Every structure is written in C-alpha cells, then in structure tokens.
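Q: Fold this one first, please.
A: Sequence and structure below.
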Amino acid sequence: MTTTAPRMDTLTRDALTVLQPGFTGTTAPDWLLRRLGEGLSSVGLFGRNIESPEQLAALTAQLRQEREDVLVAIDEEGGDVTRLEVRTGSSFPGNNALGAVDDVDLTRRVAAELGRRLAECGVNLNWAPSADINSNPSNPVIGVRSFGDEPGPVARHTAAYVEGLQSAGVAACTKHFPGHGDTAVDSHHALPRIDADVDLLRERELAPFRAAVAAGSRAVMSAHILVPALDPEFPATLSQRILGGLLRRELGYDGLIVTDGMEMRAIADTYGIERGSVLAVAAGADAICVGGGLADDDTVRRLRDALVDAVHAGELAEERLADAARRVRELAAWTSAAAAAARTRGPAPAPEVGLDAARRAVRRTVGGQGFAPLTGEPYVASFTPVANIAVGDETPWGIAAELRRRLPGAEAGNFSGDTAGEEALAAAGARRIVAVVRDEHRHGWMGRALDVLLAARPDTAVVEMGLPQAPARGAVHVATRGAARVCGIAAAESLLTA
C-alpha cells in the first residue's frame, strides 16, 4: 500500500531529490515511504538493513511500490567492505587482491558477478569502486580497499571494475575524489590533509579517475579531504574548484557527483551537516549521502529545509539545486534502461569467480627450514586490530572457521594488546600455531606478538590478511591482501598443501 503524501512545491521536491538517506531496520519505515512519495529519489542501504538476499529483494520491492524509479544505493566494495554479506564475509576478494593478480579481465568479471547479485536484489547504485592509490602504506582507512600504490595499474583496474559493474545494470560510483590514498587520518574521525603539489596530484591521484570517466562511470563520490594545492580553504566535498573546476571542466565528467557521508566528522565537526550540505551542492555535488550514523526522518527534514532556506537566502542558486536534482533523475532513468538491457544479454552467472580470484592472489613464502602442511589439531591465534568504520566490526574474518572445517580438532582464540603474544602462546599449549594478522606494519603490538610466538615456536605459520608491508616471516608466510571470506578459504587451502 502506498502512503498518502502532500503535494510539494518544486523547490522542496528538488531538495528531497538530492538526498541519499539511510534508515534502520530490515523493512522500510513509514517515514521513508512518505518521503519517497514527497519527492525523495534515493535510499542508501547499510549492513544493518540486510539479513539475506531474499530479505533484501523484498525490501527493495517495498521501496519500488512507493517509487518505481528509486535509486537504491549500497556500499558494497567486496573484500573487507561488504554489506551484502555483512554477516558471513564476502564471496569476492577486495581491490588489493585483484590488483596483485593484475588481470583486468578477472577484475571485470568479478565486478560483473558482484553487480549481477546486487541487481538480483534490486540494488542499482553501488558506492564503488575505490580508485584511491594507496601511496601511504600507513593509511588507516584505505589499505586493501585500493588496487595498489601505482597509478597505472590502479587506473586499469578501476576502469575494468566500472565496466564490469555497469554491465550488470548497476551504476558505479568511483571514489573518493580526488584521492584518499595519501592520508594518515581517517575522514570518519577528522579532516585529512594531502600536501602533494599539483603536478604530482595530476600524475598520481587523478589517473584512476580519468580512467573511470573514460570508462563511463555513472557517479563519482567526493572525499572529505583538504588538498591545499587544489583549494587551500575548502575540503574537496565543499570545493567548487575541485568539483566544478577539476572534475567537471578539466576531467570532462558529466555524471552524478555524490558526497561521502556528511555525518563523518571531517565535515560534521567543522561545518555541520546542514551547512556542509548547502556548501556541497553549491560547489557542484548533486547528491548528499547521509545515513551511516544519522538515519532518521529528522535528518532528512533538517537537510531538506537547510537546502530550501539557502535558496531563499541567496546562498544557493535555485538553478544549481534544480541541476543537481536533474542529474539524480537522469541516473535513475539510466539504471532502469541498463537493468533491462542486462537482463536480456547477461552477464552470465559466475559464482566461483570470487574464490578463483582469491586463490590467484595468495602469495606464500616458505621459511628457510621448510614448511610441512598443517595436520591434526592446530591452534589459530588471530591478532585483531580495531576495525575502521568503513569496514565495521560486524563481519567475521580470519581462517579459523575454514581450518576447523578441514581439521575438526582445530581450536582458536582472538588476542590484542601488549600481552597478546604471551596469551596466545599459553592458550596454544603444545599445538602447532597459526598466527593471523591484519596490517602488522601498522600495529606495533601485533609485531611484538609475532616476535614472542616465533621465538618460542619457530614452526608457527603466519597469515597476513591486510597489506603485506612487514617482512615475511614464520615457517610459512601467507599473504591474502584482504580478509574476505574467500581470502580465508584460499589461505586455509595454502596451509594444507605442500
């Protein structure tokens, strides 16, 4: 049953059209359905909204009963950042694993299969891929979400991902423009700054975005980062120089510009979400993403009213707001046509492509004393860092479940902090140890824990499920370049074979 909504004037409808809000629950609340009737054109989904593919399909069908052309967006990168499989871990490795394999056809096929599964569930806009070049290995928020640290390969794989995803009728949203890779701060927590000069930015950060534009990416997401060489005053999301000048005019991009989440502290703590949203649209953004943290009707009302009030006050041109709303509607029309075309031509299901890619990404280094495959009842010690907000802590990771399935007597434990090594050693007893780490190079306590284990038990196997920046060590060192479920499967297989 559709809800009854009052007629809205054009200005108010346009203000609602440019919002991409989230909500809580696994069915659409009444307030969201009412807003769709009033002009809201997009909805963002997060892990909290998803229980199963069947439930997700029912949810998107419920949304389309109210508005047939609604854009249903999701943050589904595959790999460590998954919403579709938030409770089990992803069936696809993330970007860094794909970049390590460096087979652009494989990347295209992975993205096409991911897109096919999203389309089956009624999702038609994916806030992916990440086109950030991970030039700072200590980056706390990008890491394995990046295809790599060199412009050429990252550009090739970004384009392939865009093409694969959109072949399934799902719009790609390439992020985080103009590039979040060379930062030491997570924009969920504070405002990062990149001090590279213009020439380096054009050569490095912008290369993947040029490739995405050439590949026809239907959307681009802005980054909440300050880049003084491009704009010394405003972060990219609020910068007319960066969105209007660099992205629109210099790179020739004509699709939808979406902001990163406006409740992230890089914006919320410096401008506030209402003022930030007005500045973003004025700068050239067409859609305001909000809902990861603020997911209620009051947030939608506040942002709608802020945009309308800014037009009345002369702070935001009515034509700019209308143009932004037009781009949202154009993308919705594209997704409808693209989905229909994808249904007639494929892509054909390829359920094993994710596991195949994860297996190809594994790199195994055997220590000087050799390695005997695991047998019997090993002990899996997982050294667990605090997850960043983009990844979240709801999704299981590691290899313990996979090893238990193959070696039913295996035991496991999770450890963190300065005494993690000693605690793991005591818990393992006489069992052979498998130590699982995630970005050892960024966590001193994790490296010290491995020191303790390897000094006492040199036959320890080490599995690195983050960036393999630290030197390989242990009787065997297995690098997966991501912590997706399929990466865990591939790592377990590697430990069980000679």
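Q: Good. Now the second chain.
A: Here it is, same layout.
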Amino acid sequence: MTTFASGTDTLTRDALTVLQPGFTGTTAPDWLLRRLGEGLASVGLFGRNITSAEQLSALTAQLRAERDDVLVAIDEEGGDVTRLEVRTGSSFPGNNALGAVDDVDLTREVAAELGRRLAACGVNLNWAPSADVNSNPANPVIGVRSFGAEPALVARHTAAYVTGLQSAGVAACTKHFPGHGDTAVDSHHALPRIDVPADVLSARELAPFHAAITAGTRAVMSAHILVPALDPDRPATLSHRILTGLLRRELGYDGLIVTDGMEMRAIAGTYGIERGSVLAIAAGADAICVGGGLADDETVRRLRDALVAAVHSGELPEARLAEAADRVRSLAGWTSTAKAARPQPAPDTEVGLRAARRALRLTGADAFTPLTDPPYVAALTPVANIAVGDETPWGVAAELFRLLPGTETGTFSGEDAGLATLAAAGPRRIVAVVRDEHRHPWMAAALDTVLRSRPDTVVIEMGLPQAPPRGALHIATHGAARVCGRAAAEIIAGA
C-alpha cells in the first residue's frame, strides 16, 4: 500500500517524485524506504545492486512493500551494457549485432525475452534502447550500443525493440535524444558537441526517435550534448528548445522525458547537479536520473531542496514541476496496468544465442580448419567506457576453455602488447581478441606484430568491425556479450 509521511507537502512530494536516484548495496537502505514514504516514486538500479535474479526479485519486493507503484528502473541494454548479468556477461547480443542480422522480428523477440526477465524480477522501466545512429566510427561511448550507421535501419530496429520490450509490460526509455551517435567525446567525461545542419539532424539523428514515438515508447532519455543547430547555448538535457519545442511540439511526444545521469561531467562539471536539475525540469524533462556515481540520501535531499527553492524563487514554475510529477505517476500507472493485462509469455532462453550466431561475419572461413588443441587467447583490452564498465567479463577464453579444455589466456595492452602476446603464447595457436581495433593504434600495431610472426592467428573483433579483416580466420561478432563469445568459440572449435 502506498503511504506518504505526514507533514510532507505537495510541493516537496512533487520534487521527490521527479527524482530517479540510485543507492549502494543489494537491499534497500532505510533512507531510501523513508523517501519512498515521503513521495519518491522511482528508484534506479545498477550492477552494484544485483547478484542474482532471486536477490533482485527480493529487492524489488522490498521496495514495493513500501510503495506499491514504484518505478524500478535499470540500464539493461543487453550486449556490452548489462546490469542483470554484470558479473557473467549478457545472454543477449547488443544492438549492433541485431542490426547486423537486420531481422526486425528477431529484434522484437530478443527485446520481449529481455523484458520478460526484467518483469519477472520486478523491474518495470528499462533505460533502453539506444536509438543513436553511430555515424561517427570514432565514437567512444556508443559504438556497438547502436543498431548501426544507417538511419532507416536504426529506426526500424528501435521500433521493434520498443514494441518487444513493452509487450512484456516493461516501459522502454529510448535514448539519447536528439542523438549521441556523431560524437567523438564521451559525455561521462565532458560536453560533446554535434556541428551539423538542422536538415542533417532531422534526416539522420531524429529518424529513430520518430519511429520510437510511433511505436509508443513510454519514455525518452535526453542526451548531455550541445547541438548548436538546435540550441547554441544549452545542452539538450537543459534546452527548452529541444525538449519542449522539438520533442514535445514538433515530434508530438507526450510521454515521460528522463535525463541521462546528472552526475556525468557534461552537466556536473559545467552547471552542477542542483542547477542542472532545475534547468532540466524547467526545460521540459520530467524525471532526473542520478545515482550511477552519487548514490546517497544527501544527493536526494540536495536535489529535492534545489527544486523546491527554485519554485519558491520563481525560477521554476510550480505547474511545470507538478506536470512532471504527474507524468511520472502516469507511467507508474501504465506499468501496473500493463503487467496485469499481459499474460506472461513462455521463456525463450535461447533467442539471444540464436541472434549472436546469426550476427557473426566470417572472413577466411573457407580455408579454416577448426582447432582441436587448446589455443592461447590473447585479449587486447582497451579501457572500458563508464557505460559498459570494467566489471563485466568479455571475450572468448571461457567459452573456448569449455570446448577445448586447457585453453590459456592473457590480457595485454600498450605498445609492447604484440611482443608480450608472442612470448606468452609460446608454440600454442593464438586467438587474438580485439575490441574496436580501428580506434586504438596500439591494438593495430600489436596485431601487426603477432601476424608477422604467426600468420595462422585467428582474430576476433568484438567491437565495431571497421578495420580490414585479417588473420587466418577473422570473426566479427558485433559485440562483446557472453553469447557473442560463445558463438565465436563454436566456430573456432567446430562445435
């Protein structure tokens, strides 16, 4: 039963309602339960909060015992960005693999199964899918999180993903509006800028969001990016022109607008999280995502008080805050109705692996003989971006060890990675695993060194396959999820 603490006025409740905070630990802390009683309506979950499906179900039940209509949100894209399987790697390939297959029915099936698993654990809002058109191959933060570089392809798969996810009663949150694909800067670290004309933005970046809105996406997440053709002064998250003028009025979107994480340096390092949150709500956002980094009661209090003070000073109209809070409550109501109205579909536990197998692109397979002896797997490992995180395992070593017991592995980086790989491998056949070779000169140089001495090396690209294929066999997986590694290992071992 939903209860509110006595003495909590409407304005304060509304200010709490628009926040989507995170927390630390695998059970809900007392401060979070207290805030739910005072009006907090959403909670964001991250990998640090999850150890198993059973534990997650117990956690969401704990939250709902305090507030039965709470929105429980998660950043579960599948593929490289997983929270459900943060310590094992995802059972689903990511968007780029689905785009490589280009079967919208398959994308819908994958999203529906992912939604079924989330709903079974009590999660009802997913900060996915990424609708970004990855038009810049050097993009450091989107990459394989995008369905591809063609707007029409991204649009049709975004719509299919939204439909599939919401068929399970889990609200989709299409991101990162108006499009984060043409950036060379990671907004976790700084403020990216997209300098293209408005007509290019309309035809390229906005096409997938049109499709998502038509498909009925229940939420849209804003991007912390500066787009001078739309607003030369403020990033999208803080821009009335972009959130209200473009997304609401021009595109006709009337669902929930959620900000990307406010503690990301693109906002926190320029405006600060309190000022940024006030400007975001004033610009047209309805929910403030925070908690990836700042995850405590003090953060919630600071943001609540900043919103209340902005209303009292006249900077933030009270009606705008009330409207935002009403949209949060409306989405909570939809999730409750959607869950009750939809029969639980039968699990399809193999759909992710089927998709990963179909996404493989092989070069040199005709002359390749599957390995029978255990190889040496050299993972040429770049620094993971914050969205992906470095706690999630990736690669093919574990799957190859299962198929070829005795497989050994090592991780290498930097200018000596090639020579170190050769020394560690000894006489064993080398399987070199890379991630976005085209973005890392040291990685390309390491492959050069290895292939000069060992031309029979198998190369597996688990990022964007932009570099020319090379090696005795080259496998492009279009992502680094666990199932992508399994699909590649099956080819190498002839399983």
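Q: Anything worth noting on the second one?
A: Confidence is low (pLDDT under 50) at residues 1-7.
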